[in-house]
Amino acid sequence: MRKIWWIILSIILIIINLSLIIEIKKLKSNPFSGKIIVSTENRKISFPSTQSLLTLIIYFSHRSSEKRMKEIYYWNKLYKTLPKEDIAVVGLIPGNEEIKSIKTKYKILFPIYYDKNLLIIRRFLISITPFKIIIDKNGKILHMSPAYLSEESHKNFYFIVLELLKNKKIQEQQSRWK
User: Fold this and answer.
1) Which of 32, 74, 156, 161 has its CA 20 to 30 A from that of 17?
2) CA distances to 8, 38, 53 from 167, in Å
3) d(Cα 126, Cα 128) in Å, to the nearest integer?
4) Is residue 46 predicted with pLDDT exceeding 70?
5) Which long-range contacts (CB under 8 A, 24 or more apart) does 36-41 make?
6) What are phi and psi of 115, to 5 degrees?
7) What percent of the chain is helix, strand and coil (3-state, nearest 5)?
């Protein structure tokens, strides 16, 4: 009788191990490159990072800290004032929340998409929201951090983005000259 229990337990552990291996392979096969796939109402989209020099991805939810969400003013400013070929600003929320209510609650101007499979949370182990990720058009991660609490830090992040953008433009020009 004990032998049967050990066999059953071994089979269960093997199945669990295999499912974890499959999940890890899924995450590795979808690295955070220029074409991260996020489902939005059962359609797939790719982030516009292949078109813009930089993409700012902001992961947040209804449960995000109100103080940290005040940084939205600067995210909206980046979205409104900079050309789309320079920067794309994209919001992501868990798949069980409503986009319209979040856009209204926080007065968000940039597009928001669902992360139904929680790929971003799993990939970057996000525990504090909002969480910001800046990638270049090749998918290289240039900056990752949770949103800051102070107004001064919000302004500093805005200028960090502008500095990253300036450096990317210089790199683009140098690569054209070669």
Assistant:
1) 32
2) 58, 28, 10
3) 6
4) no
5) 36/119, 36/120, 36/139, 37/119, 38/92, 38/113, 38/114, 38/115, 38/116, 38/119, 38/120, 39/95, 39/114, 39/116, 39/117, 40/113, 40/114, 41/114
6) -110, 70
7) 50, 20, 30
CA pair distance 122, 115, nearest whole angstrom: 11
Q: How many whole angstroms separate alpha carbon 41 and alpha carbon 62?
A: 19
Report how far residue 97's alpha carbon sits from residue 95's, in angstroms, rounded to the nearest whole number.
6
The residue whose two tokens read 């220029």 is 34
pLDDT digits (tens, 9 = 90+) for 127-139: 888 999 888 877 7
What tokens appear for 46 in the block?
């790719």
Residue position matching structure tokens 């020009």: 173
CA–CA separation, 96 vs 89, rounded Å?
21
